[in-house]
Specification:
Helix 1 runs parallel beside helix 4. Strand 1, helix 3 and strand 2 form a beta-alpha-beta unit. With 198 residues, the protein is α/β, with parallel strands linked by helices. It is built from 7 helices and 7 strands.
């Protein structure tokens, strides 16, 4: 995980991940009452911006200044307000509690990931939801795209165990279509949704 590598990646004119929100986040957030939302390692901020446009008080945190600059511009173009925080999520403490926390494709070594997840669990408000989505380890052999390093990939079982003591409402492998120069391919992701019920 290198800040300058990501800054360089986000400095181009085009949006790296597109401007639309992740479909799994939309699916989850559409069933919730808007409150305070946190987009972890938000990159160019597409998910935080979508949340803000749908009634959430959204915060996006990322260590890439270039990514956050793009997020600010896109938010201004869409007329929405997002709180942007430049910080390394592996060492950052969220300011307060959130009703929805989204950690989308945050791939870290297992020990670091567990620490980040413990921090996010602690930042979840009573009744809040924590959504983790990322490239599943089986994607290496059976899917398309994503990081080639198995040490930063994961499984639904691993993520569900890391989100204790929350209540796990979904823990599964999901597929998504990826458009390539050779046609549509399928990527395999882990999706875990957890809630603070007590």
């Amino acid at each position: 995980m290198n800040r300058e590598v990501w800054n360089e990646r986000y400095r181009g004119a085009d949006l790296v991940w597109g401007s639309g929100p992740n479909r799994f986040l939309v699916e989850v957030a559409d069933s919730l009452t808007p409150g305070r939302a946190l987009d972890v390692a938000c990159g160019e901020g597409r998910n935080a911006i979508w949340l803000a446009g749908n009634g959430w008080a959204a915060t996006g945190v990322d260590f890439s200044a270039a990514g956050l600059d793009k997020g600010r511009r896109l938010a201004a173009e869409r007329g929405v307000s997002v709180t942007w925080i430049e910080a390394d999520v592996t060492a950052w403490e969220p300011p307060g509690e959130y009703d929805l926390i989204a950690a989308m494709y945050v791939h870290l070594p297992a020990g670091v990931r567990r620490t980040v997840h413990a921090t996010l669990v602690a930042a979840l408000a009573p009744g809040g939801s924590l959504l983790v989505v990322g490239h599943d380890r089986t994607n290496l052999t059976d899917g398309f795209g994503g990081p080639p390093d198995p040490d930063i990939l994961f499984t639904p079982e691993e993520i569900a165990a890391e989100l204790a003591p929350l209540t796990i409402s979904r823990s599964e492998r999901v597929t998504r279509e990826v458009e390539t120069e050779h046609g549509m391919r399928q990527a395999i992701d882990t999706l875990v949704l957890a809630e603070r019920t007590a």
